[in-house]
Structures
1.
Amino acid sequence: MSRLLDAASAPLGVCWLRTYESEPAMGLEAAARGGSLVGEPGMEYEERDGRLVMLTGELSESPIELLGREPVRDLAYTGRVLGR
């Protein structure tokens, strides 16, 4: 999940270059202050070889699709809530 948060931070303009571990995720957390949840938080899972695997395709596309339509702080907040 941390790599997904790393990837989400760049298009949101929060962190373009990670210089230390968790920098993008911490940037998203800071950017999320005062934000609110965008959309319905739904995570899909499937079982593979006896393990639950989170399907992140829709989650990773959402911030890019919503750029310019929703405030960055709301997109960052949504990413932090779903990433916990």
2.
Amino acid sequence: MKKKLLNIGKYLGFLALGIFLFWLSFRKIDISLIWHELSEANYLWAFVALLIAGLSHVFRAMRWNLMIESMGYTTRLSTTFFAVMIGYLANTAVPRMGEFMRCGVLTKKDKIPFNTLFGTVISERLFDMLVLLILMTTVIFGQWTRLGDFVMQWIRPFVATIGSQAVWLLVLVVIALIVIAIGLFFYLTRRKQLNRFPGYKKMYALISGFAQGVKTITQVRQKGLFLLYTLLIWLSYALMVYIPFFMFPETDTLSPMAGVTLLALGSLGMVAPVPGGIGAYHFITNSVLTSLYGISAHIAGSFAVITHAGQTLLNVIVGSVGYLILFLKGTNTTKND
């Protein structure tokens, strides 16, 4: 009960943070101007962006299938795609829940071990974080004259906080290293005795399966295809951001590089631990468009509202349809007994 209350408290805290950031993004904007821009926007471009977003999720499912197949399991693309979309649906409500949900879907439908699937998701996320880091580094240093002051405004408070807490951070690192060292020593010297403890073998099997899943990224047979799907995923993401620029006369002159910049920096809002990225995405998008490209605050706010709402609707609708198809209709899927 205590743990449940703690989780509810954390969720409400992050939700409150998202609402605060949402308010912070729009507090100085005339809402009537937002409504006017929303009524005048050319939604055809938003629709095209959503089609590309759906395609990016298909590429993600295809890439995940490569990792699953490298472990000797099989699953249909439709099942994997709907599992991915159900995961996005879960993330809309509870941050980071989607990774568990999509693995749970395939475990239930195709009898693939959950811990192994979760390992592949962790591996996939780490790889995408590396791609995002490379993209952000390229964007920032490639446009330092434009982005330098903007980035430093975000970094200075963080560096100042780290500096003021340096001693405590060092103590925590040392304690963590000592605990890890003691744990390894105990494991290596007492391995035989550990086998006698109830549940040890089951726990070892879970960890082994998770480790196997994490390693799949190095074991994928078709590495060229894996990289191609990754390229298509991120190209789709860039187009998803760039194409909606044509919704407004003020943003339709922005370059594709502006779209890539917004993708790189705006992704931080979507990975923030707030439900569906609400508030965080709007805050970062508004800041990038107004501070870097001189876009009016009400146009930037309208852009953020439409693109975020479109992505959320796509995840909710397709994720819900996927759940109905997979579980209520009981579609036949590949079994891995």
3.
Amino acid sequence: MSAAKRLIVNADDLGRTEGVNEGIFDAHRRGIVTSATMMVNYPAARRVAALSRDCPALGIGLHVALSGGVPALPPEQLRSMVDAKGMLPAKPAGLAGADRTEVLAEARAQLNRFREIMGRDPTHFDSHHHSHREVPAVFEAILTLAWETGLPVRNASPSMAEQLRREGVPTPDHFVEEFYGEGATLNDLIGLVEDLPLGTSELMCHPAVVDDELRATSGYAEPRARELDLLTQAAVRQAVQRSGVKLINFGQL
């Protein structure tokens, strides 16, 4: 790529609900979203393969989800990771005592389910709630998947970026996570685009058509509708063009 500034706009949580699916594909068709990461352990994930056929330019990676929801493996195989009801912990802190072998097994099971659903490998890996930034065992598991597949990984901190490069794992130069909550405004998004550093950046986002299932299961629901609106604004697309930013997905790293 000859562009001095490249940007991957990655929508997290694809497959979580039908409304999340609808919002992400809309943000790709009408807006600046170029990439998404899928949570494979939710029923709505089964619809993603069909939805993606009309959007071949949307890169789809694996959102390794080890906090919140149910695992891909039977709970009895993950005794250090699940509660009495077979549920994964609500937040990454609940994985602090997890057995590394079980963490890797569940990550591999989610990769296998992605392949089953999509019929191919993901474009890259990241994690729900940034658990690969918060829990060393999760980072080790995702690093192992990257070694085994040669695929990129989201770098969620400067130290992680340095380690990934040291290990020879492809990763963007910069990670932008400020487009979230109170930081998800039109001025903020345009400013992030206009102020991108040289190299390749990833901007994380969470667009969705907010449905009842999302409201019932996520503490971050209603703001996703605002993100969808902002990511499809003409002013944002104009800022991308005006700033000379090249939009890409992880498959183009």
4.
Amino acid sequence: MDKPCFRQIYEPKLENPVFVEGLTGLGNVGMVAARHLIETTNAKVFAELYAPYFPDYVAVKKDGICTPPTYKFYAAKTDKHNYIILTGDSQPSLEDTLAHYDLCDEILNFVQKYGTPFVVTMGGVAATKAGNEVFIAATSEELAQKHANKGVEIYGEGRIIGATGLLLGLAKKRGWQGICLLGATSGFGTERGVALSVYKALKQILEPDSVDIKQKAVPEK
């Protein structure tokens, strides 16, 4: 395998699905928040992504079955939204910039087939004294300001590392709208409380009258 490879399990029927990403990272905030969403929406795996950029190990379960690192795409329908939820157990090395760009581009190409108009990425941000604060960055100032009074603060003058930042940036270049939710974490171990705060912020923002996810994408010039 010399390039990312998708394994389609079934073809979901989705209408204007919101694409939500939550991968491993600082405090595993994004991954745990994504799992909360998967559980509460009863989402089902419909595709998997394997790539040569992932670490060279396999995870072994209690029954002795081993599996290589993978990203999983879940589909869900609720009364409010359709979702495509991405989570996984690894990311490429931070030093492998090309791998991150290639992988994020492949992911966006894949979800674009389902008419995704809105992207949400989730992760952690380092804080000396984490108090479950949640920060927001967005593809536009208007979008960030719109949700800044819903229990989140504007994240300014910083960087968002890995897929959590790059997916949002590349989505913006395609003319998509999107936000990033970052939970303040010390980074020591898995921060489940912080992840729950990010999940609650996500649910509050994605109320039917809170975000317009049907706007036509206009690629950035």
